[in-house]
Design a protein that fits this description.
heterodimer, A: mainly alpha, Helix Hairpins, 3 domains, elongated, B: mainly alpha, 2 domains, globular
Chain lengths: 145, 398
């Protein structure tokens, strides 16, 4: 075999072994333990702090609002869906305030006219025309609209 | 208004009819249009080169090396639009390191590498090795060392080893033809296999992509052949140019037939998705499909080339006509990719509504970004032509 072909073969072998070496070095340790992902990621994700604590966790202090909401149209909504994650607030309610999203656009996020949403699943309102002079919460109680 | 909401309200104003929330904004935009376009140029240019080598079309000889280098220059950037489309471009290599066998994209990585390393690089190398050795002897300085390194330090240009190179190069080309088919057929497969999308999901997709790839690749090489000769103030080999145009004409006919067949089939079957597709064609894709792709990209070139098969005006006129045809064909194929990629995302999978798409000028998915990836391969090609000038190559019998 001529010299250049020998060297060509050698180059090929070097490239392939380099790839295999890289593949070996760069594949994370626990990859493929359970499936096509890092096995360790299960534990790492499970160990992350939980940010959303659920409606039940608000009950002990805001029981009137919870019952009020459960009786109204917004009964299906989660408190934290509007107020944001409550994990800090439930520990230090005095210092860690949650947001009070009382802008018109905020309600419009769910209620504005949106062809992508079936009208029967959610009542839609043209928020540009519907009583534009005031905030929604002036007339509608967000917890019992 | 809060910018976060403003975005949503703006997006909603583009929608009409019923559409699922995740379909409002197109996730694949112009960079994904470029990906099949560029890959198609690669495959098409290579197939033109193999016409000369394997199918022995002697009059195409002057385009052989240009076609190979074009193919190579475009192949180097073929994945760039994809990588820049990613939110995390630096993680792109992970699909190669931990490939998943059911991932169409991961397998594309290997098909691409096979084509780059085994087919194109090897073929160019075998074809150039003799000259690399000669150039290494003649040049000085950095260039000498570069040529020497590229020749792998070997100085062997005995007739025996040159003959062996020729033989191996031929074998690589023979392997290369199915590989080029695989490369671009695979790009078609990626779209054709998405069964949820009636605009994409057809077994014809790989075949249509393949033939349109040949059309665009041949047109590009034809253009470059004219431009390179003009820039170098050389007389254009008209026999060669006419032959390219002849093949371009044939392949456009096949491509046109395939695409029409696909559409006729769709019309005749008239499945439940038919209504929305009809609306798509007569509405959002009206201009890009009927005017740009079919009118400018198919009918005009087909008529011009068809007439030129029988009636041959003066050389200057023919050159001009071929040049214009080449440009029109490239525009047409670009819009063909556009209609596939963008068109497939404009209608809702509920078949009840549309969203719309407006190309932005700047930004990671904008017009400028796309232009960069279209221009870069030409610079690479210019560099390659400077480093490995085909006109300084020793003429060898294939």
């Amino acid at each position: 075999m001529p010299l250049h072909l020998k060297r060509l073969l050698l180059t090929g072998v070097v490239i392939v072994s380099l790839f295999l070496l890289l593949k070996h070095a760069l594949t994370p340790d626990s990859f493929g333990q359970y499936g096509h992902y890092r096995g360790n990621s299960m534990g790492e994700i499970a160990a992350l702090p939980i940010h959303f604590t659920g409606n039940k966790s608000c009950e002990s202090c805001h029981d009137t609002i919870v019952t009020m909401k459960n009786e109204g149209y917004h009964s299906d909504l989660a408190c934290e869906g509007c107020h944001g994650a409550g994990y800090l607030h439930i520990k230090n309610p005095k210092t860690e305030k949650l947001i009070k999203p009382n802008s018109r656009e905020f309600c419009g996020k769910c209620h504005s006219i949106n062809p992508a949403r079936p009208e029967k699943a959610i009542t839609q309102q043209n928020i540009k025309d519907h009583h534009p002079e005031d905030k929604c919460v002036k007339c509608h109680n967000p917890h019992q609209p | 208004m809060n910018p976060e909401f403003e975005h949503l309200y703006q997006a909603l104003s583009k929608v009409d009819g019923f559409i699922y929330p995740n379909e409002i904004e197109l996730s694949w935009s112009i960079l994904i249009v470029l990906y099949p376009f560029i890959t198609g140029l690669v495959a098409g240019a290579f197939i033109l080169a193999s016409l000369e080598r394997v199918f022995n079309v002697k009059s195409l000889r002057p385009t052989y090396v240009i076609a190979l280098l074009t193919s190579f220059a475009f192949l180097l950037v073929a994945t760039m639009p994809l990588i820049f489309h990613l939110g995390q471009p630096l993680r792109a290599w992970e699909i190669m390191m931990t490939p998943h066998l059911t991932s169409a994209m991961a397998i594309f990585g290997f098909v691409y590498l096979w084509y780059l390393m085994i087919v194109l690089l090897l073929e160019i190398w075998f074809d150039y090795r003799y000259d690399l050795v000669l150039w290494a002897r003649e040049s000085t300085g950095v260039k000498k060392w570069l040529y020497k390194a590229l020749a792998l330090g070997s100085d062997d240009i005995s007739p025996k080893s040159v003959k062996l190179d020729q033989k191996l190069g031929y074998i690589v080309t023979v392997i290369g033809i199915p590989s080029a088919f695989l490369l671009h057929g695979y790009v078609g497969f990626i779209f054709g296999s998405i069964k949820a999308n009636p605009w994409w999901s057809t077994v014809m997709m790989p075949i249509i992509f393949l033939f349109s790839a040949m059309v665009s690749g041949i047109a590009l090489v034809m253009l470059l052949f004219i431009i390179i000769n003009k820039v170098r103030k050389q007389k254009i080999d008209m026999l060669c140019l006419d032959t390219i145009a002849k093949y371009l004409f044939y392949i456009i006919i096949i491509d046109f037939t395939m695409e029409s067949l696909d559409q006729i089939h769709r019309f005749y079957e008239a499945e439940e998705s038919f209504e929305i597709i009809q609306l798509l064609i007569s509405g959002h894709l009206n201009f890009t499909l009927l005017v740009m792709q079919v009118g400018i990209g198919m009918f005009l070139p087909l008529t011009t080339l068809g007439i030129l098969q029988f009636y041959k005006p003066a050389e200057k006129v023919r050159q001009l006509l071929y040049f214009i045809t080449g440009v029109l064909v490239l525009i047409g194929i670009f819009f063909m990719r556009w209609n596939v990629v963008i068109g497939g995302q404009l209608f809702s999978k509920s078949f009840l509504g549309f969203t719309s798409f407006k190309l932005s000028l700047i930004g990671p998915e904008g017009f400028l970004m796309a232009s960069i990836w279209l221009i870069v391969p030409f610079f690479i090609l210019a560099f390659l032509l400077w480093l490995f000038p085909p006109w300084k190559k020793t003429e060898m019998e294939h």
